[in-house]
Amino acid sequence: MLTDRQRMILNAIVDDYIRSAEPVGSRSISKRGDVGFSPATIRNEMADLEELGFLEQPHTSAGRIPSHKGYRYYVDHLTQSFSLNPAELHMMKTFFAEKLNAMEQMIQHAASILSQMTNYTSILLGPEVFHTSLRHFQLLPLHENQAVAIIVTSTGQVENKTVSIPPGVSVSDLERVVNLLNSKLVNVPLYKLKTRLYTELGQEMQRHIEHYEEIMSMLDIALDNQPDHRVYLSGTTNMLNQPEFKDVEKVKDIFELLEQTPLLTKLMAPAPGEQGIQVKIGTENTHEAISNCSLITATYSIDGKALGTIGILGPTRMEYARVIGILNILSHDLTKLLSHWYK
């Protein structure tokens, strides 16, 4: 447990570092009107906070910066409730009052507003990513070595793709595969199809279907649904405006990650029953490319069922209270507005 004085000093250091991106010294903290301690007292507390793992000292600088543990404590215990100023609140409320004709246009616009208001990168997964599931799968042979794979979704959308039939695979083999797939994967969300293909069908198909590996490769291609239009990004280059990422090489991996829809979907997908704001700081993120970033996400839902996720990706030196406040408002208003499409 931290003392009240340590909590006050840690809060001041995180606030100052968020604003300046420069290591924070005891003298600058002592000049704050809300602290009221001498530089010597603050230096001692900073040393203790560093020993406890809440602060780090970069190189030989006399100042300290928050560690990932320090940011976590700040988010969990020190952030205050945040309110938008009247102009920002008006901008957000005006957007939702505008009755946009297409949901996709609304989602794109929401991502844009989010990145503008935060100066970070916004990621928004449209409701279809989690809501649309498989209704029916079919393989229609065109001739001996080619077939059309047809996917019918729960929303009535029909997608088709031409695939090669592996040598030696008969029409009866294809029928058994289709029946097995429909018995196991109907009602599975589209973004989970390929994973479930291997986890739930793999062993059974290996036991009962000849040319197992070739057929699995064919199905992997048939189910390779790349819903790029369902993932919306805005403010990607905002990363380059942050002092931490002035070196383009440092953000190369992040940019490559943002181009990979399946990985983004996995990072943003809420865990079963997960609701509200989720904050992942630094190495709490499962992908190494963003191990020096913070990802804050919020789900929007109808009748308790998550329809999608909105998120902000930025440096660990993030304005947490502001971002959390904005995401709270946006997720609430998205839930309210999207109800018109799903009721």
Automatic annotation (TrEMBL):
Winged helix-turn-helix transcription repressor HrcA DNA-binding domain location: 1-72
GO molecular function, one term: DNA binding
One of the protein's GO biological processes: negative regulation of DNA-templated transcription
Domain Heat-inducible transcription repressor HrcA C-terminal: 104-324
Swiss-Prot/TrEMBL keywords: Repressor, Stress response, Transcription, Transcription regulation
Family annotation (Pfam families): HrcA, WHD_HrcA
Family: Belongs to the HrcA family.
PANTHER family hit by this protein: HEAT-INDUCIBLE TRANSCRIPTION REPRESSOR HRCA
Biological role: Negative regulator of class I heat shock genes (grpE-dnaK-dnaJ and groELS operons). Prevents heat-shock induction of these operons.
UniProt name for this protein: Heat-inducible transcription repressor HrcA
Organism the protein comes from: Paenibacillus campinasensis
